[in-house]
Write a structure and sequence with these properties.
Length: 52
Amino acid sequence: MAGKVKSKTDVSARADAKNSARLCSLCGNKVEVVMSVSPTGKKSMRRLCCGN
């Protein structure tokens, strides 16, 4: 082999995007993402901030 093959995916850019904080458009605080389970068993991701 002529050396290491460069990855097509920019791993550092993906890590930066994942670690960047999502800010609330109303109050400007960080939005918390949680998984909620309904009584019927359906799972959904919810974004929680400023009572919404």
